[in-house]
Automatic annotation (TrEMBL):
GO MF annotation, one: DNA-binding transcription factor activity
Domain HTH araC/xylS-type: 148-246
Alphabetic keyword roster: DNA-binding, Transcription, Transcription regulation
PROSITE patterns given in the database record: HTH_ARAC_FAMILY_1, HTH_ARAC_FAMILY_2
Record-linked InterPro entries: AraC_XylS_family_regulators, Homeodomain-like_sf, HTH_AraC, HTH_AraC-typ_CS, PAS, PAS-like_dom_sf, PAS_4
GTP-binding among keywords: no
The protein's name in its UniProt record: AraC family transcriptional regulator
TM annotation in the entry: none
Superkingdom assignment: Bacteria
Pfam families cross-referenced by the UniProt entry: HTH_18, PAS_4
Amino acid sequence: MNNELARWREAFMARVASPWYVETLFDRLPDIVFSVKDKQGRYVSMSEAAVVRCGLKRKQDAIGKTAFELFPRPMAERYVRQDERLFNTGKPIVDNLDLTVYRDGSAGWCLTTKEPLYDNQGRVVGLACISKDLIEPSRAGLIDTGFADTVDYMLENYDQPLRMEDLARRAGLSQAQFERRMKKIFHLSAGQYLIKARIDHAARLLASTALPIADIAQHAGFSDQSALSRQFRQVTGFAPRQYRQLMRPEGME
């Protein structure tokens, strides 16, 4: 994006009177929960589906409260651990499996993504969260705590060498069972899911930092720059340097 387009986009967004249109959009999606929290874990915004999920009568009843005031303690503790990881690292949490409790008291699983929110000085001040219900995989018994914890482990350690047989063992499954569940839920094999996590992280660093590409390869879990370049081009169609030039306006430090 060039400087002129970047300025046009920023000027347009500055003209929007209120950011709450985002909340209104998600109000129309009953199987997706949207929320915004500050760095102290207090809810700033919440979609209607989230209000229903918490058993509240109106959104105002959630504002200023924390997860411990709205969810069962084990769920709240898990959410807070995720949030603290995001605040400490500045890294988004993508496609995380979380247990949720529905209005009728039944339990199911959702796929959660959390993005950090920054102030004008580039400091993380909160997060935005989207969770999508996974009704069919939950009913089919494909997701349990062991499987979800293993996906957590992959997302937290994608920069380390990970063996599929070790991950399957961690989940209490055979390697074939583990692969089938990954494909059913994420539409990716376990190996593809791991590559996606690494490529996502590399793309964020290319777009937001001036780190040398060799250092980015190391941070993202690739053996060297050439391994990153090969996988990055295969997944995105761009060489890492081309992607950086596309995503960073000219002259951006």
